[in-house]
Amino acid sequence: MKRIGMLTSGGDCQGLNAALRGVAKALYEEFGKEVELYGIHDGYRGLIEGDYQKMQPENFSGILTHGGTILGTSRQPFKLMRVIGDNKVDKVEAMKATYAKMKLDALVILGGNGTHKTANLLSQEGLNVVTLPKTIDNDLWGTDVTFGFQSAIDIAAYVLDCIHTTATSHGRVFIVELMGHKAGWLTLHAGIAGGADIILIPEIPYRLDSILSTLNKRGRQGKEFSILAVAEGALSLEESKLSKKEFKQARANMAEPSVAYRLANEIGEKTGQEIRVAVPGHFQRGGSPCAYDRVLSTRFGTEAARLIKEKKFGQMVALQNGKMVDVPLSEVAGKLKTVPKDSEIIRSARDLGICMGD
Ligand code: F6P
What we know:
Blueprint: E1 2-8, H1 16-31, E2 35-40, H2 44-49, E3 52-54, H3 91-101, E4 106-111, H4 113-124, E5 129-133, H5 149-170, E6 173-178, H6 185-193, E7 198-200, H7 208-220, E8 226-231, H8 237-240, H9 244-253, H10 259-271, E9 275-278, H11 291-309, E10 315-320, E11 323-328, H12 329-332, H13 344-351
Parallel strand pairs: 1-2, 1-4, 4-5, 5-10, 6-8, 6-9, 7-8
Antiparallel strand pairs: 2-3, 10-11
Helix pairs in contact: 1-11, 5-6
The structure holds 6-O-phosphono-beta-D-fructofuranose.
Residues 11, 75, 112, 135-137, 179-181, 232, 285 line the site of 6-O-phosphono-beta-D-fructofuranose.
């Protein structure tokens, strides 16, 4: 009998259920009644507290198109994993104890950057771990694309489409703030798909002058409206020169709730125009996965099942150059995949006349 545990951790996204289904169906197909699957509730919290349930094949039916995660999720910061809190629980030892008590042969973990640091730690502690790369941010090192990313792009691009019609009617400048604190993949792709005039991402610090001159140029061309796609982690050139601590302090002291609102005030002051801000927020992570993500999540899921069959642990399944591969967790953990400033897609945006803020 094989006993496999599964958990979803960190921010949710579209395609988690499709991926769980992919793992489960492939394992049931391979091992039949010789496999038992266990769903661990709310990510690492369930593993720490021993909160789980035995799953049945029917639990994985009808969930391909469902957003969210049937297992629940939570954020358990990696930096606190080794810290013993007031409840005196050693979280890492507790997770190992649950794994042993459940008599697991392997643990399947679906998550993003933080999740992978803990997955690597558990692997180093001797647990048989296989992971799947999920996040709308697409910032996981080792895979060309994560699941959730394309679905979030579709939603963000739809928001930009809708904003376009109202911005055009009123001749207004709109700032659409999109998710992504450290990486600008989502804003860049959605911005191009949604025809944004200015795209600001964390990788390319912006200058207000550059934004104003693009707006002026558009004005001279008779275009009264403009759309800015701004990542929530976008920062000015001045801010990029601050130390991490100074930056945090400056942001904490900022009068506006986010960089998009600050820019709206600054642009409004300089141009005398009415600026509007739209923040789709968690809409970007919700709802049904797009067809691309359903396929990608399923492929990641069946690949994870293959690794379990081959007893190849300590790996993340990944997509590289269109092919399913696996990458050691030790190589993935702690590395961020940001947008290279000299990438072809940035060049394409610039060739189009999109202002990248610099
Ligand atoms: O990591 C995915 C993500 O959606 C980021 O894009 C965003 O900054 C963050 O999660 C939001 O986190 P929370 O759901 O905890 O507010």
